[in-house]
Amino acid sequence: MPNERKYRVAIVGATGAVGQKIMGLLEDKQFPVEELVLLSSARSAGTKVLFGTTEVTVQEATPESFIGIDIAFFSAGGSVSAQLAKEAIDHGAVVIDNTSAFRMDENVPLIVPEVNAQDAENHQGVIANPNCSTIQMVVALKPILNTFGLTRVNVSTYQAVSGAGLQAIEELEEQTAAYLDGKDMVAEVLPVGGDKRHFPIAYNALPQIDVFEDNGYTAEEMKMINETKKILHMPDLAVAATCVRLPIVTSHSESVYIEIEEEGVSVEDMKNVLQDAPGIIVKDDPANQVYPTPLDATDEEAVFVGRIRKDLTNDKGFHLWIVSDNLMKGAALNTVQIAQSLIENEIV
Amino acid sequence: MPNERKYRVAIVGATGAVGQKIMGLLEDKQFPVEELVLLSSARSAGTKVLFGTTEVTVQEATPESFIGIDIAFFSAGGSVSAQLAKEAIDHGAVVIDNTSAFRMDENVPLIVPEVNAQDAENHQGVIANPNCSTIQMVVALKPILNTFGLTRVNVSTYQAVSGAGLQAIEELEEQTAAYLDGKDMVAEVLPVGGDKRHFPIAYNALPQIDVFEDNGYTAEEMKMINETKKILHMPDLAVAATCVRLPIVTSHSESVYIEIEEEGVSVEDMKNVLQDAPGIIVKDDPANQVYPTPLDATDEEAVFVGRIRKDLTNDKGFHLWIVSDNLMKGAALNTVQIAQSLIENEIV
Residue B335 and residue B18: Cα distance in Å, rounded? Predict the structure, then answer.
């Protein structure tokens, strides 16, 4: 029996890049919306947006905005989530939070539906959407773990500027235009909006995403390490990460080295497992130069995996190239899929 | 006693990006040039170039071009080297070859002067300059090997388009301009000039450098693996590589994971060893956002190392971010340094 209930849905951060994508996906996927409430900061309030054929006026988010809301998508930065998520829960909403505010809270499930949808059953009001670079990696790691076991993950990322927001996209385009005109590039946003120093991203690579922690790793690297362990329920998994921002607008790529438990696994075995897994499209035919790229992955829903190779010296080692749209599966799509899985599993 | 001998020098591929850099370095470093012969294909012959205050006319390279030459720099592609290097040697020249034609020939020393200058002593006429991405990595690996031992290397590269020649630089700039104008990007050069399919590099990442081999690795990846083992005299070293082309004009970056033999080595120990090693500048101060980037490394001679971190689960594991100008230390500079070391060691 299909569940025919409809839901009152709020999007906090509705005018942002991810908020807009969430709204588009609710429409495209015919999400059972009874009422859509779009919320933003005071600055963006008053903006009018079309949802299907309905004009919706964006309102300033306040505690009272959540009265009667069933599902609240938060995508307006960690401080907004920290401030307003509790109000939404107190008014009876389930919060699906796209910031890092609650991800490592042991009472908050961190969900990628293909991987650990069942963890949402124990939620206490907030369900967290993982970091973009984590999501696409664990979608590929989970079927490998299930089939061959998994003992080590070492990832180097190739991340798009859209992960740092619309300002970062504009900065890349302005710097590129300046470079082509032989002018100086102005850097005011990247690598991290709130950090002390800024460097050009055009024609460059910045080995810093988010701020540095005391151990010399960036917060982005620690997110990938800690979130991967949490989502896979493997607190002792050996995970390492180096995160790099590049002059790419959308879609993150990852060079991932893994070690599995099982011996004698072939590249064909590995491809078959990935091909059969939910959410993954294998693009891997070296003889015909077929492999995933960020331009091809943009606006697509899947996690693309290619360059699947066995390590030349370690029978249990494999190399993968994993690409996905960081605004889609890395953010808005996974958020909406969490809500869909809550409905399917009758959690909301 | 300084050696005051001067040398008759030829550059084959004199009008190319690397050939021009070699000429500039011979001048900047006051290389003891008695006569400079600039050679090229018939197409570029006749071009006039200033070497210091002397105008030199580029000539078509023929077997007779090498009569009387002491040192011949070859940088005009593997097929030209295969065709003309023997002629140069037969006329008494030492060939320093910047192509992949002879690198893995067991009778040809493959030299990075900071690492294995002494290997040149047994040359039989040709000395090979390694692949750009290999050179900068082994400069950093050698002092680590000497001090702590080395058992494993796993590199993911972030490579600039200039490694694919001037046409690739033009293609990146044209595609970028088209993108900013909202036009379609035309791809005719990258990932590999002679391969079947071409993809845009602007705002993209291409996990293919050079052609694919039958084992699913690219020729570039196999160069890094095999050349590293040869230069370090470690045929059984576990080396893995994933090579990726990016929209960066100059300077390659590398995310390198290593495992060493010694236990209990600290990040400070590792930094000290790298800081004291020839050819390396350590740029590593996370608290002040100090790390190497390709824009900063361009036109510099050093190999820059930063983001030096101990692996969080393996006491013997370390992560490094290695950046260097692929046209300088990765090509022209190393080539000229080989010639300088031949003179110092009285091999030529």
Answer: 10
* B161, B204, B283: best to mutate for the A interface, most A CBs within 10 A: B204
What is the pLDDT tens value at each position of chain A, 348 positions in all?
A: 456 899 999 999 999 889 999 999 999 999 999 999 999 999 999 999 999 899 999 999 999 999 999 999 999 989 999 999 999 999 999 999 999 999 999 999 999 999 999 999 999 999 999 999 999 999 999 999 999 999 999 999 999 999 998 899 999 999 999 999 999 999 999 999 999 999 999 999 999 999 999 999 999 999 999 999 999 999 999 999 999 999 999 999 999 999 999 999 999 999 999 999 999 999 999 999 999 999 999 999 999 999 999 999 999 999 999 999 999 999 999 999 999 999 999 999
Instruction: Examine residue B1 and state whether it is found in any structural domain, yes or no.
Output: no
Give yes or no for A243 touching B (CB within 8 A): no
**Which residue does chain A place closest to B179, by CA atoms?**
A173
In terms of domains, do A139 and A121 share one? no
Tally of domains in chain B = 2
- Out of B207, B289, B307, the one facing A321 most closely (by C-beta) is B207
pTM for this one? Answer: 0.97
Q: What is the CATH number of the domain that holds B263?
A: 3.30.360.10
Q: Are residues B125 and B224 in the same domain?
A: no
Residue A311 to residue B203, Cβ atoms within 8 A: no
Write the ipTM. 0.96
B243 is catalytic: no
**What is the domain range of residue A203?**
134-326
Is A319 a known active-site residue?
Answer: no
Transcribe B275-344 into DSSP letters. Answer: HTSTTEEE--BGGGTB---HHHHTT--SEEEEEEEE-SS-TTEEEEEEEE-TTIIIIIHHHHHHHHHHHH
Does the residue A2 lie in any domain? no
